[in-house]
């Protein structure tokens, strides 16, 4: 085996280019396999590194006249090169690394995060790439690494802005970067239990308990397990069990608060130091868990509030170390606080939430927006509605805290998962090591209580903790359940299956139903399509997803009611009424027809956007251009100039001869649909017909992209571009927005199905982009959505809206309706930083703006990356932090005023709400699109959905002393 590995690795080295050519994941896997079996792992040799820059042999220390030095390993050449080509850093030695390089500010702090992932992998995989080299003496000097860590934090914590903007990440890094001799015992405990369950599956139940709800009595359970299974355990398994018991024993020892206070040498005379001293005096010997947790949570809040006031870096380091220990106090004692009444449970949720915020898992302004305060009621009573509000705030807090972990680490975890699948467990480990683990359990208990009191109960197979599941869009579906734990982007979805994802894919094709851990945002294209088409859609927790994996591949019935309760049941458990919902109907029932009787195809001139309005929608051009032209008349200073390439220009070009087909492009398209109808009449299976159509459309799409543009069209584009937009074609960047006649129909939105090209400058790229946009309605995804819901999907005509780019600071969507309240007078807004915000499923900052006044934060942004639009074209990726909200108070006022004017002045053809895309640049509001907001009336009015929607008496009075 060893020789084979050496041979594989030598082949790899021969083929490895020292040029900056990215190494693919398979080759990195080969490297890792080799390192696991190499006595030196990722290291080449050991040297002395002297302060004058010289490097000396291991037995030749730095002489006194040169000054002190450090001894440690050097990386193998290919490890060094992997950092250059892939920005992947394996087996990092801190003493070897400059502080700013390790902080890696220009790359989303990637090196620091990789160091943490590396430590996790070593814990769960027997040393990982250092499996054998962990015994390579002298490769890493622990005292040098710890000294480096202290100096790193002195450097890092001297910067107020870095600390304020990256509080969560910096605080988490303290758990992994050596600087004071402490170990991350909680992670070690989880890692040892995972390793043991992998080696000995009978330990799985105990592993789940230790991961989900660790408490002191688990030590006795592990000892009892060892006794029961002693005859079947190998010596190695017994050794790991003993190590686990030792780790748990140390972990569950009470934190020595006196010793912790004595280490905080720089804090004794500070305001926080005085408060900490009083806390230690009271609580060093306290045994009452509820009192301890409440006071510790309040001290954590005090600590975070005073951290930036303290300017000494080492004092800040001492405060952060105390913060870590205080979180540990709460984590250890939370299982011991067992509330008996509703009031006690609400108090526990409040204080665990307070500590979660103070520990950085959510931002301070987010915590304040939740208004989750300790219950005080003179009558010792509350209403069901008030308790439900607390439950919703608690759920949000749990979701937001999990989102913080994912937002900070997901990118690096995805990179590592490509070559080391075990890395995917890192985020789950971080979440389970946080106070949010216990907070989630308490919120679940409150949800169970409210469910019983309100009869609003989820019935999702037989999984536990169902109160964390909540419906987003009403609807029902039947099909195979597919549970996807990893990235959804490579999954080929089927229109008759129900999917559970970590996050919704941005380019989702038609499916029967969907549930996601990360819902993205309420107004993304995916969510709007689901809402429009009556696809049941729900949000759930990571734990729910894991529990559903056992049902993967089974046929299930799935329904979300109008009030958001969720049902998933096995096929065998379906009622007669539920079975009847899926009796095969006529193929065309429930579909709609794209109106083409008024379409104008003889208009073959480029139009000034000022010359079109809402009355031209579906006739000369699509609704994007028509409605933006309408907005230009209404809000001339907030809408850019624009050009419209009408349907007629596309249709005129489609009459040209198609290469190698002896017919025009249009004739080729028409022949394909005629053949599909003939195949259907012959009884050929739908799947085969669809496969034929997709093959033909691929041929057509490829041909359109190569189609010659007519000279008169090119000439007019050049002329009108300069006269309308004020610059010659190729001088300023523009958006090319697909704008078809199949969008924004009364019963079909078509949101996001076709191509929009961002920030194109080059003249040739603009003309090629026009053809790309014309071809986009014939992609598989766009065609499948049309084919599923339209009677005449062949009658799609694309126009194109050409508008100058605005490099907005943030952008998003306004819906002139309260999506969570159901009130037509409320507003829903979602914004992300940069251009294209909220529409592609980003984790957006979302608000409910209430007609009665005020607003409610429904979700904060958790999107680390956003697009900016340079004048040179294309997009640049920037990174964001989350310490302040995206929208300011004036922005929200401007949006409310805009909504008021839209409601007053837009055509009154329907009473429906509007979906508006907009952005802010230097606090000036810009409008980019308006369309009707379409909901699925069938799903909303379904008698079955009404039957599973209980009537809730929100005014029901509940005694806070009631037992839970």
Tally of helical segments: 34
Number of domains: 6
Averaged pLDDT, please? Answer: 87
**CATH topology description of the largest domain:** Dna Ligase, domain 1
Largest β-sheet summary: 8 strands, mixed
What is the top-level CATH class of the largest domain? Alpha Beta
Give me the count of strands: 28
Percent helix: 40-55%
Class derived from helix and strand content: alpha+beta
Query: Which of globular, elongated, flat, extended, rod-shaped describes the shape?
Result: globular
CATH-level-4 superfamily name of the largest domain? ATP-grasp fold, A domain
Would you identify the regions where 5 or more consecutive residues have pLDDT less than 50? 1-19, 585-589
First-last Cα distance: 59 Å
Name the beta content range.
5-15%
Query: What is the alpha-carbon Rg in Å?
Result: 31 Å
Descriptive notes:
- There is one protein chain.
- This protein is α+β, with helices and mostly antiparallel strands.
- It has six domains: 2-183, no CATH class; 187-214 and 216-251, no CATH class; 339-456, no CATH class; 460-580, Glucose Oxidase, domain 1; 598-804, ATP-grasp fold, A domain (Dna Ligase, domain 1); 806-938, ATP-grasp fold, B domain (D-amino Acid Aminotransferase, Chain A, domain 1), CATH 3.30.470.20.
- The chain is built from 34 helices and 28 strands.
- Strands 5-12-11-7-8-9-10-6 form an eight-stranded mixed beta sheet. Strands 23-22-21-20-26-27 form a six-stranded antiparallel beta sheet.
- A hairpin with a 2-residue loop joins strand 26 and strand 27.
- Helix 9 runs antiparallel to helix 12, helix 15 (289-307) packs antiparallel against helix 16 and helix 17 packs parallel to helix 19 (384-417).
- The chain is globular.
- The relative contact order is 0.07.
């Amino acid at each position: 085996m060893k020789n084979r590995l050496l041979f594989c690795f030598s082949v790899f080295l021969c083929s490895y280019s020292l040029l900056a050519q990215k190494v693919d994941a398979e080759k990195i896997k080969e490297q890792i396999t080799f390192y696991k079996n190499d006595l030196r792992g990722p290291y080449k040799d050991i040297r002395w590194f002297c302060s004058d820059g010289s490097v000396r042999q291991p037995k030749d220390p730095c002489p006194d006249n040169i000054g002190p030095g450090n001894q440690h390993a050097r990386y193998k050449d290919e490890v060094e090169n992997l950092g250059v080509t892939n920005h992947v850093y394996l087996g990092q030695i801190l003493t070897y690394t400059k502080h700013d390089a390790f902080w890696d500010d220009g790359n989303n702090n990637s090196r620091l995060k990789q160091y943490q992932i590396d430590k996790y992998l070593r814990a769960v995989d027997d040393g990982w790439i250092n499996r054998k080299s962990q015994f390579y003496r002298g490769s890493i000097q622990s005292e040098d690494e710890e000294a480096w860590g202290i100096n790193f934090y002195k450097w890092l914590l001297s910067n107020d802005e870095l600390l304020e903007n990256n509080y969560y990440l910096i605080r988490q890094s303290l758990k992994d970067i050596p600087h004071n001799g402490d170990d991350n015992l909680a992670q070690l405990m989880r890692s040892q239990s995972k390793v043991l369950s992998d080696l000995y599956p009978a330990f799985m139940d105990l592993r789940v308990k230790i991961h989900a709800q660790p408490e002191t009595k688990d030590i006795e359970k592990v000892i009892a397990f060892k006794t029961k299974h002693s005859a079947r355990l190998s010596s190695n398994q017994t050794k790991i069990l003993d190590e686990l018991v030792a780790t748990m024993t140390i972990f569950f020892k009470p934190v020595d608060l006196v010793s912790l206070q004595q280490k905080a040498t720089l804090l004794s005379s500070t305001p926080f130091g005085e408060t900490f001293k009083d806390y230690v005096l009271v609580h060093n010997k306290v045994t009452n868990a509820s009192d301890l947790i409440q006071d510790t949570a309040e001290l954590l809040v005090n600590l975070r509030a005073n951290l930036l006031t303290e300017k000494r870096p080492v004092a800040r380091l001492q405060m952060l170390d105390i913060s870590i220990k205080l979180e540990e106090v709460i984590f250890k004692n939370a299982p011991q606080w067992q509330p008996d009444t509703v009031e006690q449970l609400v108090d526990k949720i409040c204080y665990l939430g307070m500590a979660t915020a103070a520990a950085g898992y959510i931002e301070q302004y987010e915590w304040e927006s939740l208004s989750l305060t300790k219950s005080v009621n003179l009558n010792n009573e509350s209403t069901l509605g008030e308790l439900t509000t607390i439950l919703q705030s608690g759920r949000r807090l749990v979701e937001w805290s999990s989102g913080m972990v994912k937002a900070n680490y997901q990118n690096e975890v995805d990179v590592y998962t490509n070559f080391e699948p075990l890395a995917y467990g890192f985020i789950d480990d971080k979440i389970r090591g946080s106070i949010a683990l216990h907070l989630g359990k308490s919120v679940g208990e409150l949800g169970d209580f409210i469910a019983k009191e309100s009869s609003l109960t989820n019935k999702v197979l037989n999984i536990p903790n169902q109160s964390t599941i909540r419906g987003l869009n009403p609807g029902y579906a039947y099909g195979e359940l597919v549970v996807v734990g990893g990235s959804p982007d490579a999954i080929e979805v089927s229109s008759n299956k129900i999917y559970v994802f970590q996050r919704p894919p941005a380019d989702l094709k038609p499916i029967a139903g969907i549930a996601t851990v990360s819902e993205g945002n309420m107004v993304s294209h995916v969510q709007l399509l689901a809402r429009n088409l009556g696809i049941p859609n729900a949000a759930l927790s990571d734990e729910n997803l894991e529990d559903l994996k056992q049902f993967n591949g089974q046929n299930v019935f799935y329904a979300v009611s109008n009030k958001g309760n969720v049902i998933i049941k096995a096929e065998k458990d379906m009622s007669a009424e539920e079975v009847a919902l899926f009796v095969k109907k006529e193929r065309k029932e429930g579909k709609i027809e794209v109106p083409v009787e008024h379409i104008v195809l003889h208009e073959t001139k480029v139009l000034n956007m000022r010359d079109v309005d809402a009355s031209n929608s579906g006739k000369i051009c699509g609704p994007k251009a028509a409605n933006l032209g309408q907005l230009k008349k209404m809000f001339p200073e907030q809408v850019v100039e624009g050009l419209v390439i009408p349907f007629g220009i596309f249709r005129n070009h489609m009459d040209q001869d198609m290469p190698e087909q002896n017919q025009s492009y249009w004739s080729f398209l028409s022949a394909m649909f005629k053949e599909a109808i003939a195949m259907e009449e012959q009884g050929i299976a739908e799947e085969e017909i669809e496969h034929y159509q997709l093959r033909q459309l691929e041929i057509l799409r490829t041909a359109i992209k190569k189609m010659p543009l007519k000279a008169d069209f090119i000439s007019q584009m050049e002329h009108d571009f300069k006269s309308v937009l004020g610059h010659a074609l190729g001088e300023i960047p523009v958006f090319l927005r697909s704008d078809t006649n199949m969008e924004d129909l009364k019963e079909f939105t078509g949101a996001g199905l076709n191509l929009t090209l961002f920030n194109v400058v080059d003249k040739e790229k603009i003309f090629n982009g026009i053809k790309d946009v014309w071809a986009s309605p014939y992609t598989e995804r766009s065609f499948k959505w049309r084919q599923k819901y339209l009677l005449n999907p062949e009658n799609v005509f694309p126009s194109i809206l050409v508008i100058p780019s605005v490099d907005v600071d943030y952008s998003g969507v306004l819906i002139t309706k309260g999506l969570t309240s159901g009130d037509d007078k409320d507003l829903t807004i979602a914004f992300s930083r940069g251009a294209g915000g909220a529409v592609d499923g980003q984790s957006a900052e979302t608000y409910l703006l209430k007609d009665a006044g005020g607003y409610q934060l429904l979700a904060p942004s958790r999107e680390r990356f956003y697009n900016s639009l340079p004048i040179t074209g294309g997009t640049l990726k920037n990174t964001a932090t989350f310490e302040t909200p995206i929208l300011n108070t004036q922005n929200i006022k401007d949006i409310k005023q805009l909504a008021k004017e839209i409601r007053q002045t837009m055509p009154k053809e329907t009473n429906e709400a509007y979906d508006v895309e907009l952005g802010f640049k230097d606090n000036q509001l810009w409008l980019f699109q308006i369309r009707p907001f379409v909901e699925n009336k069938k799903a909303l009015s379904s008698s079955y959905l009404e039957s599973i929607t209980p009537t809730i008496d929100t005014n029901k009075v509940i005694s806070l002393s009631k037992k839970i």
